[in-house]
Amino acid sequence: MAGYVSYRHAYELVLANGEEPTAAALVPLTVDGLIFAASLTALETARRGGKTPVLARFALGLGVTASITANVTHGLGHGLAGALVAGWPAVALILVFELLLTAVARPVLLPGVGTRGADVPGPVSEASDVPVESGTEGDSGSLGSFDHLLAQAEDIFGGELAAGHRPSIRAIRAALSIGQPKARRVQAYLDAVLAERSQSHKLS
């Protein structure tokens, strides 16, 4: 509803200022498209942990300003109250649009992993140069259940654990052919095994 009213205000304003109907119908879409593209760019950048590009900020500000200005100008002929009433649909539409995009982009919590695309805290420098085949991560068909993967890791690195050494992320990824997020979960499990064995030795 707000989108329709806001679009109609902008359409009538452009039409009243000399543009033909076809152009008047398209101009408001350029404003909405600018806001949409800038918002998606800002959200995607934020999800990757980066700063919003200056161009995206400028484009978003320009689109919002143009949309509100067009609607307010459309209502100015009816005084201040008319301008405020005409400008409200644009404000409501922009706020709803931004809230929906934020909700869609909200990270999803995964048990033991954290947010989608994020990793469990742990060393990262040692794992960056280990290639992983596409589709390997989370491929339950080749590795079986995660419990089986943990048992396999404990068996492979049994010698290192017995010596009190912590297997590296790189070694875990290479040995099990898994990605970094899952390798970190495996490493956390091996850390727990190592700590339990160390505690048992102390008690004995």
Automatic annotation (TrEMBL):
The chain crosses the membrane at residues 55-74, 80-101. Pfam families: DUF2637. Residues 120-140 are annotated as: Disordered. Keywords: Membrane, Transmembrane, Transmembrane helix. It comes from the Bacteria. This is DUF2637 domain-containing protein. It comes from Actinomadura barringtoniae. The lineage of its organism: Bacteria, Bacillati, Actinomycetota, Actinomycetes, Streptosporangiales.
